[in-house]
Amino acid sequence: MRAIRPRLASRFAALLGLAPALAILVVVYVGCTAWTIWISMTSSRMLPSSNFVGLRQYEALFANERWQVSVGNLAVFGVLFMLVSIALGFLLAVAIDQRVRGENLLRSIFLYPFSMSFIVTGLVWQWLLNPTFGIEKMGRDLGFAAFRFDWIVRQDMVIYTLVFAAVWHAAGLVMAIMLAGLRGIDEDIWKAARIDGLPPWRVYLSVVIPMLGASFATASVLLATSVVRLYDLSVAMTNGGPGVASEVPAKFVMDHLFERGNLGLATAAATSMLITVAAVVGPWLYWQSRRTGRAHA
């Protein structure tokens, strides 16, 4: 009985210490999320309203041409960004895993872009891709008078410039995740492969990549949540232009919230983004919990 009391006291003290953080979590995050969902079902314009209209704001949202363009842009950006980032990050990790000279320096160089904000990344790439004084001008100054690289001002190509910048920003993070997974693979597997005479590409394809399932899943979830939250890169590089050619859902929300004074439509768009994030993160959390449960079993 005496041993139980100190245990209960320590647990109570721990709960008491966590109480402020728990209160902030409930009030700020859960409360604001619930309020956002509620407002998305009202006729709110510049100021919140309690006039319930059901799913009318969502009907207006999905009929909005600018929202459709934003979602389409995000789909193109997301697919290319995730595929190229994962492929490039994995290849960089494989290269560094060969115990090359200057490994620490190379890891720092590849991971450095991720240490910068998307605002800085966007401004850097805006300068590089500017036809007046960027890569195009450098090519012409070198004597290639017909050289053109003006994607950032072309409506049909501008979304791909966002992919360039985002891949440059995130590939280093994927490399770090994959490299940690590669370093966790038992060296005996490679020895057995050499004895069997298997070429390295076959070992990576048939053995290593399946063993890195957790690393690929982690990288995919992190990249996917970055895709849904994409805002600052688009604003810094193109401000959604030319026209709305590089518009993304987060910018749609911010513009309708602060510039157009349409609170109901903005919160409906924000709620749609929340549902998308939950659809991505939810299965991953479930898989992680099942994996942890099996490990403890």
Automatic annotation (TrEMBL):
One of its GO terms (biological process) is transmembrane transport. The chain crosses the membrane at residues 12-38, 74-97, 109-128, 157-182, 203-228, 263-287. It is found in: Cell membrane. Residues 71-286 form the ABC transmembrane type-1 domain. The keyword Repeat does not apply. Belongs to the binding-protein-dependent transport system permease family. The keyword Membrane applies. Keywords: Cell membrane, Membrane, Transmembrane, Transmembrane helix, Transport. It is a multi-pass membrane protein. PROSITE patterns: ABC_TM1. InterPro entries: ABC_transporter_permease, MetI-like, MetI-like_sf. It comes from Alsobacter metallidurans. GO terms for cellular component: plasma membrane. This is Sugar ABC transporter permease. CDD domains: TM_PBP2.
